[in-house]
Amino acid sequence: MRYYSLEKLMNLFDGYRKVFKIDNHQLMLLQQDGQRYLIESNCPHRAFPLSASDVVGDELVCPQHGYRFAIADGQLRHYSEEPCRNLRCYPLVYQQNELGVVLGE
């Protein structure tokens, strides 16, 4: 397991969104309503990038087919074609003035 620094806390704000590629992980850090989330950055349905997705309430909406996922836990809430798995969510690690994640090798 290894710690990866993602962002300084002072750079975060509501509406913040940034994609990270760490080894074989594609991650997206976002802040919404003061809460920070780290989720996989591509839709599990057809791997469309979620960096262009809309946030509606507490859901992330994939712009390709309208799939909706809960931001907090990645739960699939709505699908327009076949169902897919939930979004992967990663626990954030706070270290002093920065935010990061611990990932396995």
From TrEMBL:
Rieske domain location, by residue? Answer: 3-101
Report whether Iron shows up as a keyword of the record: yes
Please provide an example of a Pfam family that matches this protein in its UniProt record. Rieske
**UniProt xrefs under PROSITE patterns:** RIESKE
What's the protein called, per UniProt? Answer: Rieske (2Fe-2S) protein
- The yes or no answer to whether the keyword Iron-sulfur is present is yes
Its keywords, alphabetically, are: 2Fe-2S, Iron, Iron-sulfur, Metal-binding
Natural source organism: Spongiibacter thalassae
InterPro entries of this UniProt entry?
Answer: Rieske_2Fe-2S (IPR017941), Rieske_2Fe-2S_sf (IPR036922)
